[in-house]
Records
---
Amino acid sequence: MCEKNKTWDNSEYKSHSSRHLIKGDNSFFVIGQALPVFQEYSYEGRLLNNYDLTLIPEIKKQIHKYENEQKAPNSHFIMIQDIYYANGRIYILIANDIEQYKCNIICVFDVSKDIKHVKTFFLSEDIYSTFCVFDNQIVAVNYNACIDVFRITEI
């Protein structure tokens, strides 16, 4: 049995409440799937940092597109497909077309002190669903059921 110990509520994000959650070395991170907010919390639940993802040009472009296009009733979109933590950095797989769920861009954030965007990678023209990072490589699964390996040359 799992007992509920504490709830950290932030109801202002309710309309886009689906979020990714990942553990870092000294804190945990919450990143919205559709809401462009990146938050760091202490293990006690205290908000430590808040980063506006619209500072990233590719995300700003997608938010602008979403806000200025007519949407179907009860439509849903995902801007952040997947996230991964490795070596003090968070890697975020973002959509380049939120209506079609075409994801092939990875934004890298250094989170060792504060949340700081350090690099953006464009993987290829393929569409990716998930990925991981190790040994200076990004390994990503594309929608053609293939696994692509990309070498990280610099950050």
---
Amino acid sequence: MSTLSLAVRDSATMLRRNLLHARRYPSLTLNLLLTPVMLLLLFVYIFGGVMSAGLGGGADRSAYIAYVVPGILLMTIGSTVIGAAVSVSTDMSEGIIARFRTMNIHRGSVLIGHVIGSVLQSVASVVLVGIVAVAIGFRSTDATVLEWLAAFGLIVLFALALTWIAVGMGMVSPNAEAASNSAMPLILLPLISSAFTPIDAMPGWFQPIAQYQPFTPAIETLRGLLLGTEIGHNGWLAVAWSIALAALGYRWSTASFKRDPK
């Protein structure tokens, strides 16, 4: 069997293993998924009337739903991939990785299984949150088929990037609780982006913080694809951020995996 065939076979096995874990222990996924759903409902029904004033032009609650949903969708990815950090840290601390090291399997398949499984869960979570968004009034009638495909590609690429970062966090965390805590910035960063209010409406000293971070260009790109707003330079910035984070997370994760187990 060739090296490529071995890698594909073992990666598929590790993917099935991770998906089975997610199915047998759904509480973690559900807890992570509830965060963006609750935030969506909170900001639409509790703060929506007030927050819509920041959009200007006499915007109402329905306009704010259209504005906030793209940010919530990407926040869903940041929330879901925390499960990858917890899962990897659990494997490392419980010794199963040490057992895998002694087996005749492709070394990279262990991490690849975690990454692909997390990306699939992230996409499924985005779909579920999107269904909730449509149920409360979100519409994207102007987006073409090509724009929908581009939006889906951006979601997958961004999920891949954040997953590799989460895997790296899980590799260096001593236990699952520490992994969950270290991955919290993946949920907090969207809160200080353009997800909930335009950057122009923020205080001047805070605007660079919101502008120069990975979530803002990704949110603005997704918003432009789904709603037809101006994307500008945010498109290539979102792709550049995603590629850079994926490369960083990959190098971090593989370097940590090559070291002696905890």
---
Amino acid sequence: MKHGRLLLHLGAVVLGMFAFGFAMVPLYDVICDITGLNGRSSTVTEQAKVVNEVVDANRVITVEFTTTVNGGSDWTFASEQRQVEVHPGELTLVYFNARNLQSRDVVGQAVPSVSPAAGAKYLRKTECFCFEQQQFEADEEKRMPVRFVIDPDLPEHIDRLTLAYTFFDATNLASLGAAR
């Protein structure tokens, strides 16, 4: 009898773990939408649409860029500018440079995030190297664009946004996708 209760409890724990793991994907999507993590501050359709906003020339927003290379990856990765000052509604183009320092071909992927979280949904990227994996030959360097606009509805108390990218080696992920 004692072992039967233990098996019942262990079975409930296994089912609970399975349900939690199954629920993680939609939960992660919701968290990313709310916080702007992973560049998902709004739907892809909203981000990719051409923005025809009226430029607010009376307001200036500072957009800072930070870059990180995931540990153990042999890359250089940096923005060409530390920051830009833009008017809400103004389409802005900036560039990032990445270089594969390895002697083999690899695939790179950048994961974006925007902070503060309250301003993330107002930064709309219309073009970004982070939308797709990037193929790099051995010792190849690429200049990669990001085109964005700040929505004029950005709350008045926000005058600075940080667009951060973490670049990592996605060669194994790319080969898994190709195998399907």
---
Amino acid sequence: MTIEYLGNKDLLNVHKTAFLASSTIPVDMILKCYDWAEQMRKEWKCVISGFSSHLEKDVLHFLLKGTQPIILVLARQMYKKVPEELQPLIENGRLLIISTSATTRQSKATAHARNHYICELADQIVFVGVTEGSSLHPLRDEYNSKETKI
């Protein structure tokens, strides 16, 4: 695995809560996740995620409005140009972007490797919408000691 960093590497030393959401989420969980993101923001807690599923992107949107640290882990090569909405966070030390693959596009294999990497780094993990057939199911089984509910 090729690891590349951009941003504040000191964020690797803070308590991190991973947020991993399946692509299919029960409707009643969506609002709970939004509330959870608001709470993480208010409590100034670092969230680590790939922020690639629809719900993960929504959670990132809530987190970007706060001042807490964020770690974004890519399952592809590092950005050639950091997205405009993330640039201020890099500049003020709130964001660390980690690339876990040299490939130009995310694949199922690189996403799985990225999610495993996130689970390794995290102190706690929130799994949302994980069912028997979900690609996150084996990770939830492997890292159940770190799992926290929302």
